[in-house]
Design goal:
FAD/NAD(P)-binding domain; 3 domains
Length: 453
């Protein structure tokens, strides 16, 4: 019997388990899915209980299977949720969908498939005779032929600051996803939020629905907010002319040229960006490392705001707060955060050579999940790195691995036992965190594992 242990039961781990069960055929397999029960199928992204936290992809494109992308929308209809194909659905409901999908697949599995869902945490992995032993926090040990590290989001790194004493302040919130965040912030507090991406938008909408009356200051290096979706536009793929390009500047020129053509033809720049999506990973892998670093330093933030867009409902809230001068967006380099004895913060930053200070009652960290695994606060990750079983990728954006998820150890050897999927592959594939990529990875990895990979 082939034994496969999946560490992490968010969207990636859940869909991998579903695909293993669905495609097992007559094979004898045992699947161990290690995840805290309350997070199974949800992870960070879909664990919110608030209906105003929306998916940033329309319902008809969020199906769990790459060959059936409308599956989620049909599930909505079958479960009496009245959403149109282009509606942006609460993420809470998507978490229900993934959990029910897993439970239904489990209920209908064949007798030759054994599934163990362990309400636990993986603490260590050791390799003996080309097999793995996964030690759990409870003390249990799982003997495994394959181990898949399906990590979700880790806590953000602390902001860079001359002083780090602020991290102990009562109203410094490192975890922007905590369920009680708005309960810990007084409605009259002035709030300083570091990071202006999708998590920032979640936090601001939470404050808005909590009738927050204090000032909200969003801050990031570029001061860019995610763009808003505009649906109904298409643009033909032009990836063929990009695959031979090995310089970011040449790629950028080509994309700009097609954006101009789209506007001339009555289309929209969003459709141009979306047309690249199926080939983005392939294009990224052909780039020299120096070009990837150039992109990360100079253009990645612009790509993120263009590629990872906001639902119109969320965008309207941000606009409303900005128009009322309650929400302000700043940009520059963060220099220092200080907290006085009363818990009041003084934040100093510089922009265009001018240093500015602002005060706040609360500071929220929306920088984003820590992606440098050398700094991840996880006993499992620390142990894997310490043994040399994994290493960070050269861009320090995740785990070094082959494109199919097989991890690479400290000596450069590709593992036949330890694999990874989802966010940990961002440095290798760039686009590896959204549902279209995750569902494709889950299916491909499941088939590979079942076929001897």
């Amino acid at each position: 019997m082939k034994k496969i242990t999946i560490v992490g039961g968010g969207a990636t781990g859940t869909l991998l388990a579903v695909n293993l069960i669905k495609h097992a055929g007559k094979q004898l397999i045992e699947i161990n899915l290690v995840e805290k029960r309350e997070r199974l199928g949800r992870g960070v992204a879909y664990s919110t209980a608030r209906d105003f936290h929306l998916l940033n992809v329309p319902a008809a494109k969020m199906g769990a299977f790459p060959d059936d992308i409308e599956h989620f929308h049909r599930w909505l209809i079958d479960n009496h949720y009245h959403y149109a194909p282009n509606d942006f659905v609460p993420r809470r409901i998507y978490g229900e969908y993934l959990r029910e999908l897993f439970n239904e697949t489990l209920k209908n599995k064949s007798a030759n498939v054994v599934v163990n869902v362990l309400d636990d945490e993986a603490a260590d992995v050791s390799i003996e005779c080309a097999r793995a032993r996964v030690a759990l926090a409870s003390g249990a040990v799982l003997d495994s032929d394959k181990v898949v590290l399906a990590f979700g989001n880790f806590l953000p790194p602390h902001p860079k600051s001359d002083s780090q004493s602020f991290i102990n302040a009562k109203k410094y919130f490192r975890n922007p996803w905590r369920a009680d965040l708005t309960e810990k912030i007084a409605v009259t507090d002035d709030v300083f939020i570091i990071g202006t991406g999708l998590t920032f938008a979640d936090v601001v909408t939470s404050l808005y629905h909590n009738r927050h009356a204090g000032k909200i200051f969003g801050f990031s290096t570029r001061g860019l907010l995610p763009a808003v979706h505009r649906l109904g536009f298409v643009y033909p793929s032009f990836s063929g002319e990009l695959k031979s390009q090995t310089k970011i500047t040449d790629l950028l020129k080509a994309v700009r040229r097609h954006i101009e053509a789209a506007e001339t033809d009555g289309s929209d720049w969003r459709a141009v960006i979306d047309s690249l999506r199926p080939q983005t990973q392939e294009i990224w892998q052909t780039l020299p490392e120096a070009e990837k670093r150039y992109f990360m330093q100079h253009l990645s933030r612009y790509w993120n705001v263009a590629r990872h867009r906001l639902p119109p409902e969320t965008w309207k809230i941000l606009n409303k707060l900005q128009a009322a001068n309650q929400l302000r967006i700043g940009k520059g380099r963060l220099r220092n955060i200080e907290a006085d004895e009363d818990g009041k913060f003084k934040i100093t930053y510089s922009a265009d050579g001018i240093e500015t200070s602002v005060s706040a009652d609360a500071v929220i960290n929306c920088i984003g999940s820590e992606s440098n695994f050398n700094r991840v606060e996880s006993s499992l990750v620390v142990n894997l790195l310490g043994k040399g079983l994994i290493k960070t990728d050269s861009l320090k954006m995740g785990i070094d691995a082959a494109p199919d998820g097989r991890t690479i150890d400290k000596n450069g050897a590709v593992s036949d036992v330890i694999l990874t999927a989802g966010t940990a592959l961002k440095g290798v594939l760039w686009e590896s965190t959204a549902m279209p990529e995750i569902r494709a990875q889950a299916r491909q990895m499941a088939l590979s594992l079942l076929n001897g990979g």
